[in-house]
Amino acid sequence: MELLKHGDSVGIVACSNGLDKKSNIIMKELEETLSILGFQTIFSNNLYRTKSIFNGSNKEKAEILMDFFNNPDIKAIFDVSGGDLANGILDYLDFEIIKKNPKLFFGYSDLTVILNAIYAKTGMKTCLYQIRNIVDENKDIQINNFKNTFINMKTNKEYNEITTVENKKSLLNFDYEWIQGNHMEGIVIGGNLRCLLKLAGTKYMPDFENKILFLESMGGDVPKISTYLTQYKQMGILKKVKGIILGSYTEMEKENYEPNIIELVMEVIDDDCMPIIKTNEIGHGKDSKCIIIGSDISIF
After folding, report:
1. Active site members
2. How many angstroms separate the Cα of 281 from the Cα of each of 80, 115, 154, 176?
């Protein structure tokens, strides 16, 4: 997975819910910011809602995404959407073409289904991160961290592979606390707690055996979060993984629900040997960092 360079073209898509027309102001700012960073921006023709929350058919959105993967000039693809509709395009994606044309692909929230499906079907690493963060309230820090993580400032090819470097200005480094255990190591899969479950029973669900499971959520009170966690348990997933990373749980933490997310997880997992960490730096926050789906991670 090569890093970005000055002059590269990047694509902007919306594979989940269509954007409100008012978002064109944000998209313009995003284009300007990416231009300052040295990129040419190519926008999907299906960003905005045309009927209800839809911004085209699933097939149309998939065709645009495939066009972007097929385009050798586009070096990264940023999805700027979220919501509920992303799994609709999966049946229209050509994973062989994606595998032959690997590139940086970013999305968060509902894009969890596409990020994990691409990894499951191709082995390609994908990036759980919302590029709109670079034009939001924490944009100065986000821009700086993005540059330090994904833009190649050197000519030596050894810098062209994304790695988790010990650099606080990297989007890949996040603070955390140990809830249980003191070491975890493995390949990260996961994303949004609710959305990942939409892959259950499909050919797009990744293999959880010996993986590190990352889970976060924006919405969800205690009953919702508890029932989602219980489904992971009943599917046998929590017996297969060898570590769990909990991201931010926006609604639960904002409302100070009891039991809290850590208490819920501990009760559902009921496994004293499962390594678990908690971070507040990856999720739906405007200050969120990034985690790479399909990448090895070591935490001590």
Report:
1. 109, 216, 284
2. 19, 19, 28, 8
